[in-house]
């Protein structure tokens, strides 16, 4: 072996890449380059061939993946439990905890093995680097499926020793990617809640979520041969939802387009094929996915993102309306919204063409009123009490809280849909912008203002236990758009003078907009969110202009 020169501190990977090797002050084990690339960092004074044996690494990675999938089960598939049952089951089995501790200890203290002529698997090591090390939680109060508590903050999450929740160490890559995406979404959306801070991770929830997401995308969903299946489509949808939650709508649109392409390859666009039955899901065991519902969700997200981004939609077929699927009332409303979304996208295209001398026969505002009427008719399928904002602070169980949050999300989407329908008409355009410049668009202004009020009333909720906050970028954008609508409409209404029909609503609307601005400032300061900072500054300037015009 070649003698090492005195003073050499770089690792083998940086030497091969001929890059500068620099170690952070708080992390002397891995250099910055290897940490960024997810590579194994071994100093040159250590022979790579004498590194930890492959078997010990397999055990450690298997234990980590088992822990990750256990956390997914606890966060996603957690059953509701009463306080009495939780109190009766607080004392777990010491034998179970001891057995699990012994298993983890064996995985951690596996003896080093000499590699006889074979180099370690670098792809395996780089994948393992992407998964952060998990701190071992105290085992003095073991948790089992029987003593699962409804509140995440009550006890730190610990690995379950029950065989029911134990996963195969050699699971399919698509199943592992799905679990990582589910966990990443949970961590990303719970990053701003203090009760989820005791997950026994070395980094913040957001950083860990990004690492899990990167591992799943780099090694699984980026491989076309792995995702060409029903399970692959579902996993790609989870990837797209993570992008939506982070505010990367363009990337989400690309991912859903890719999922739609795969859906066409496997025949989901054919009504007879997707209505034949259900495709069993290998990850969730007894649960299954409905192919008709899977196709509808793909079309729904593609059309919604195309509407928001002002892009053409991919699927023009509305055959999903005829799929025989057991539907709740709000699901019927969703299908009606998906069908009407295609008409809004076509109307927006005609509006752009009209500004450049497009079809003079097309009446865009008549189409808008027709869409609004059909949407109003679709909402009548829901009972009146469904539209009441649910008191999330009074939720008694996880199941009840989940149902309340689902209702709020559906309400937010509906009012955002109404706002997107009428928002082109909140300001009078220049002469000739629309075919009929003398058309009265007051109905659209009133509808947009009403939708903005409902959106802000459901979005601006204090952050805390059993509260819904705009922790995802999608809701932040809804808040900004709603506050902008209120301020712009009232600014434009001042030109009517004494005949301003919104004069009595102005104080309440401005107070709501000011509350939204304060919430954006708070979120920006607390979480160093640049979008919230810039949006709050822009809305403040617009509010000052409105006050001057008044």
From TrEMBL:
GO molecular function: DNA binding; DNA-binding transcription factor activity, RNA polymerase II-specific; zinc ion binding
Comp. bias (Basic and acidic residues): 132-143
CDD domains in the record: fungal_TF_MHR, GAL4
PROSITE patterns: ZN2_CY6_FUNGAL_1, ZN2_CY6_FUNGAL_2
Region (Disordered), start-end ranges: 77-154
Top-level taxon of the source organism: Eukaryota
GO biological process: DNA-templated transcription
Protein name in UniProt: Zn(2)-C6 fungal-type domain-containing protein
Species lineage: Eukaryota, Fungi, Dikarya, Ascomycota, Pezizomycotina
